[in-house]
Amino acid sequence: MLADGKIVAVKKSTIIDESKLSDFINEVVILSQINHRHVVQLLGCCLETEVPLLVYEFIPNGTLSQYIHEQNEEFPLTWEIRLRIATEIAGALFYLHASAAFPIYHRDIKSTNILLDAKYRAKVADFGTSRSVAIDQTHLTTLVHGTFGYLDP
């Protein structure tokens, strides 16, 4: 909780590792360019501590994965709700690919990287493996990143 009473989430790297540090820095660079209602909002960061810290808006209802894989009587995932959540995620991805200043490719979309806010609206999270591409760039060649089974084409 911040001094003004706002509740936030702090993402802290578990190990001191150069590749993890570059993922954190990449996430700061990507998220500082984004403002969309279905993308988790980065509020601040600290890269000068022993391990990097990222401060996000707090998303209270956990991950979409929890609601898909665990029985939840308080909020059952009906087909209408699933379709709404899928549409919200698709809208966020469309924004990232087509409407951001530079196209951004998430590269690790999966149910554990989709958070649900207080009204159970989808928020795309975890941009550590994302890439930004210049407008005039027609190809991007990188190593494969992400979670096996959830890799972008």
TrEMBL record:
InterPro entries: Kinase-like_dom_sf, Prot_kinase_dom, Ser-Thr/Tyr_kinase_cat_dom, Ser/Thr_kinase_AS, WAK-like
Keyword Nucleotide-binding among record annotations: yes
Gene Ontology CC, one term: plasma membrane
Pfam families in alphabetical order: PK_Tyr_Ser-Thr
SUPFAM superfamilies linked to this entry: Protein kinase-like (PK-like) (SSF56112)
Keyword Cytoplasm: no
Reactions that this protein is recorded to catalyse: L-threonyl-[protein] + ATP = O-phospho-L-threonyl-[protein] + ADP + H(+); L-seryl-[protein] + ATP = O-phospho-L-seryl-[protein] + ADP + H(+)
Keywords for this protein: ATP-binding, Nucleotide-binding
Domain Protein kinase residue range list: 1-153
Gene Ontology MF terms: ATP binding; protein serine/threonine kinase activity
GO terms of biological process kind: cell surface receptor signaling pathway
Family annotation (Gene3D superfamilies): Transferase(Phosphotransferase) domain 1
PANTHER family, per database record: WALL-ASSOCIATED RECEPTOR KINASE-LIKE 21 (PTHR27005), WALL-ASSOCIATED RECEPTOR KINASE-LIKE 8 (PTHR27005:SF280)
UniProt name for this protein: Protein kinase domain-containing protein
Originating species: Malus baccata (Siberian crab apple)
